[in-house]
Design brief:
This protein is an alpha+beta fold and 194 residues long. It is built from five helices and twelve strands. The chain has two domains: 119 residues, no CATH class; 67 residues, no CATH class. The chain is globular.
Length: 194
């Protein structure tokens, strides 16, 4: 699938090079799911078990998706959910096929139902900052093959993004502007992991 505007969503590439996209809000979740469902190809999709997360989709044929892809996508889904803002260490993720999603006229924007069997996994919330496609990204640790490409490890914490930005810029010792950093990291407080 050609998804040329993927960078306006939450996104990253898995360790095997598969593009994962998730909505930043209810409107983007709605647009993303409608767009991907319209191509009539089944995809692997995820959402936190509790409300308040992006729907994330691995844009690859299901038969080509590895356990690593699934795990990395699950961590990403959890990290950009309400669970991070709530400072949880772990979160439950529901994994299902795109074809299982349904929408009724009574459901509000960004809300979809899932029919059939759902696989559920518990993931730890921890991301690393790195560069993908020349952009700063907060991604699951297993995604980054070389330790030298990890700029920083972050976990949910008490420090507000606005307060920690200068500390992150110093810790990263890289010419990263504030907007790029704010776009890369999850909403809510963070803590730098040693």
């Amino acid at each position: 699938m050609e998804f040329k505007d993927y960078q306006k969503y939450r996104w990253f590439y898995t360790s095997t090079g598969k593009l994962v996209i998730g909505g930043k809000n209810a409107s983007q979740n709605e647009t993303l799911l409608r767009k991907v469902k319209s191509e009539n190809k089944d995809r692997l999709a995820m959402h936190t078990t509790e409300p308040g997360s992006p729907f994330t989709i691995i844009l690859s044929d299901i038969k080509d998706i590895t356990d690593e892809d699934t795990n990395e996508c699950a961590i990403f889904t959890g990290a950009f959910s309400r669970a991070w803002r709530s400072k949880k260490k772990k979160v439950s993720i529901d994994i299902f096929n795109l074809s299982q999603l349904h929408k009724s006229s009574l459901m509000k924007e960004g809300t979809w139902g899932v029919k059939g069997e759902i696989k559920r996994v518990l993931v730890e919330l921890e991301l690393v900052l790195t560069r993908q496609e020349g952009k700063l990204r907060a991604v699951p640790r297993p995604t980054v093959k070389s330790k030298k490409d990890i700029l920083l490890k972050i976990i949910p914490g008490k420090l507000d993004k606005a307060i920690i930005i200068p500390k992150l810029q110093v810790a990263l010792s890289d010419s990263i502007n504030q907007e790029e950093l704010l776009n890369a990291i999850p909403s809510g407080g963070i803590s730098i992991k040693k």
